[in-house]
Amino acid sequence: MAAQINPSILSADFARLADEARAVQGADWLHVDVMDNHFVPNLTLGVPVVESLARATDTPLDCHLMMEDPDRWAPQYVEAGAGSVTFHAEAAAAPVRLAREIRAKGARASMALKPATPVEPYEDLLPELDMILIMTVEPGFGGQAFLDIMLPKIRRTRELISKHGLDLWLQVDGGVSAGTIERCAEAGADVFVAGSAVYGADDPAEAVRALRTQAESATAGAAWACAH
Ligand SMILES: O=C(CO)[C@H](O)[C@H](O)COP(=O)(O)O
């Protein structure tokens, strides 16, 4: 699969969300950070804004739910128009049931792991998912420094995906930029969320293209991709 670049609207101007969504034409997905001020110490947006965004852009929405009780709320984000819904392993009461419900409603099901959450306990659950998100910062805010200590976890996750022969996307989120994306791609990521690196650029659409080029060239030389 080609590298996918998903701009995070957390770094966009929230007063001009529709324009900001259209400013990243050519992006694979628009990453929508939903924060409830309980699971993370920040508050962003909810279902009505996702419904409006889905009408405002042709780019599919990748909703990242940084919230408590995703078992209750995630299905509503599918109904609001999200094409992919990510819940946190640390917050879900019944992750298998929830992933199946998201898929049954017609969206891609994805699960996120905070930096201190290991991937190994979830090995048997991976076939239930379409994507796994390895957080490369503590969730809650854009513009944080990339955590290099997450690279071994990205590698281990890629090994589990290969071991089980899964068609599972591996997303990274937090501090992804021109200076870090190659390390992520070499370690095994194939979906890259970038907030400040895209919306902080003079030309966000060009920033998306440049990040994709960098990721694809790093992937081409990576051992995990050559083994496919
Ligand atoms: O989930 C997030 C924070 O919890 C954001 O998606 C992420 O931080 C993107 O911002 P940046 O690329 O600036 O780090």
Structure overview:
It catalyses: D-ribulose 5-phosphate = D-xylulose 5-phosphate. It holds the Pfam family Ribul_P_3_epim. The protein has 228 residues and is α/β, with parallel strands linked by helices. The chain has a single domain (4-226), classed as Aldolase class I (TIM Barrel), CATH 3.20.20. Helix content is 36%, strand content 18%. The chain has nine helices and eight strands. The chain has an eight-stranded parallel beta sheet. The longest helix is centred in the C-terminal third of the chain and has 17 residues, at 204-220. Residues 8, 10-11, 31, 33, 64, 137, 139-144, 173-176, 193-197 line the site of ribulose-5-phosphate (5RP).
Main features:
8 strands, 228 residues, alpha/beta, binds ribulose-5-phosphate
Structural topology:
Layout: E1 4-7, H1 17-22, E2 30-35, H2 47-56, E3 61-66, H3 70-79, E4 84-88, H4 95-104, E5 108-113, E6 131-135, H5 151-163, E7 169-173, H6 181-187, E8 191-194, H7 196-199, H8 204-220, H9 223-226
Helix pairs in contact: 3-4, 6-8
The structure holds ribulose-5-phosphate (5RP).
Task: Kindly summarize this structure in a few lines.
By secondary structure, the chain is of the alpha/beta class. The chain contains nine helices and eight strands.
